[in-house]
Write a structure and sequence with these properties.
Blueprint lengths: L17 E5 L5 H13 L15 E5 L10 H4 L1 E5 L6 E5 H7 L1 H10 L6 H7 L2 E3 L13 E3 L2
Helix pairs in contact: 1-4, 3-4
């Protein structure tokens, strides 16, 4: 008979790469879901749900990301300061003018697991508004979507 073994990765056997993604002209949600898949490692044959086996992702041109429909005026980002009556909201257009990296980061974090592993995986993404990034030493390979 055949003898097949299920491969279960752990932090010692995982091989992580660095990939670079250009967000110029990409739609926010579609790009965020693809980045989340790469961060989790679901694109690899050795994917293991309880292990950080995904790649490190560098995103450039975050200020050139697009949204469809009327989301630029209607979408709101809500946060709470921690004080009574401290709920604050900012529209997509205002957030894009102030911190375009935060828009994509919130979208990607929303697509990751809500547990310790999800928080750990979220540290593997670096988002930059322009084309410059300080990670040239990692030799990232360009990923096309």
């Amino acid at each position: 008979m055949y003898s097949f073994k299920t491969i279960s990765a752990n932090k010692n056997t995982v091989t992580k790469k660095w990939v670079i993604v250009d967000a110029e002209g990409q739609i926010l949600g579609r790009l965020a879901s693809r980045i989340a898949i790469i961060l989790r490692g679901k694109h690899k044959a050795s994917y293991t749900p309880h292990v950080d086996c995904g790649d490190n992702v560098i995103v450039i041109n975050a200020e050139k990301i697009r949204v469809t429909g009327r989301k630029a005026d209607q979408k709101e980002y809500v946060r709470h300061t921690g004080y009574p009556g401290g709920q604050r909201s900012v529209t997509y257009r205002n957030m894009m003018a102030k911190a375009p990296e935060r828009i994509l980061m919130e979208a990607v974090k929303g697509m990751l697991p809500k547990n310790r592993l999800g928080k750990r995986i979220a540290t593997n993404v670096r988002i930059y508004a322009g084309t410059e990034h300080p990670h040239a030493a990692q030799n990232p390979e360009v990923l096309e979507f």
